[in-house]
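target protein:
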Amino acid sequence: MAGQVLAPPTHYRWLDRQEIIFQSIGRLAETNKMKEAEIYTQNQNCLLEDMDGELLLYNPASAVTLHLNGPSAIVWQLCDGERSTAEIVQLVQEAYPDQDAQIKQDVANVIDDLLERKVLESVG
């Protein structure tokens, strides 16, 4: 990979209201393509580095590098090819009960972005 320029990482962070956002060229995921019964799995071609609970993902096919921290890393880890999005939402709501109302949209935003960046794939 000598001489190859990597894309700047995308950063996720959980705000006070626990809104999932990503900062990469100043773009915010606005659409919700998530279906509650849909099951997603991690793209096995991605390279993963765990840095104390934060994840650095690199998709060599698209040269996309993502930095996931906090709940966005949890969503990535829960997309294991076995859990539906509804189950993922429920698990995140259990982890962050004070933000229950916003979790569904936050999870949808993360999943949509990870799908768009081709680091998640639909199982069905």
